[in-house]
Amino acid sequence: MTDLQAIRDQFPAIDGETVYLDSAATTQKPQAVIDCITHYYRNQNANVHRGTHSLTALATSRFESARETVARFINASSEKEIIWTRGATEALNLIAQTYARNQLQPGDEILVSEMEHHANIVPWQIVAEQTGAKVVKVPMGEGCQFNLDAFRALINSHTKIVAVAQVTNVTGTVLPLNDIIAITRANSQAVVVVDGAQGVVHQRTNVQTLDADFYVFSGHKLYARGYWRTVWQASPTRSNATMAWWRKNGRKGLV
Ligand SMILES: Cc1ncc(COP(=O)(O)O)c(C=O)c1O
């Protein structure tokens, strides 16, 4: 049996009487994470990738090993596929501006479900306005389910991006990603962007079997310190979706 008290005991912020029911927004942090952050600032703080002294070397090595840990967590084929961002919101904007903006033409379509978080709608509306493309929404099915028939009817050769959640924060619906991706591949050349911000918390995610082009999620909903999030980008051998340079700091994406 799960020892709930032992789990509660790991979270100083919910010690005592507090009941916290907002983990979908952000999780409280366990003592191990708090200790790790404190240890870092007390002993290892330095600029990453920008120095020659030993603290920089240590900080850089820990920073890069975190990328390997995240790659393993979602079964990416290489840590080079992992890009740090400040938010799932920023990650989706990054894809919109560094991939979609260069690719979309007037008349192209971006398919999003009606159940998306605004972070997975607004970046597409902005890039649609910039390029003359159009955002098309897939209406919700009965019982708040994803409407696969409507999706099948809407996808066509003009569809260049399909952007859907793994699990929606709006209704809690688990989207049938395998079906969505199979239908996309069979009927279009569209790139698939999956917003895993809620899904990664509840499902084991294997980006290699998922077969999306981009997968985005938030560390702060997974007990990590605030404000690190991730974009996974499929390797060039799996996907043609290449991102343009951004802020030119030596890596694609931000860091
Ligand atoms: C499904 C979904 N996508 C995106 C986001 C935005 O995440 P972030 O706060 O990391 O920008 C959230 C936040 O609640 C979410 O639930």
From TrEMBL:
Keywords: Pyridoxal phosphate, Transferase. Its EC number is 2.8.1.7. One of its GO terms (molecular function) is cysteine desulfurase activity. Pfam families: Aminotran_5 (PF00266). InterPro entries: Aminotrans_V_dom, PyrdxlP-dep_Trfase, PyrdxlP-dep_Trfase_major, PyrdxlP-dep_Trfase_small. The keyword Transmembrane does not apply. It comes from the Bacteria. Residues 19-224 form the Aminotransferase class V domain. The keyword Signal does not apply. This is Cysteine desulfurase CsdA-CsdE.
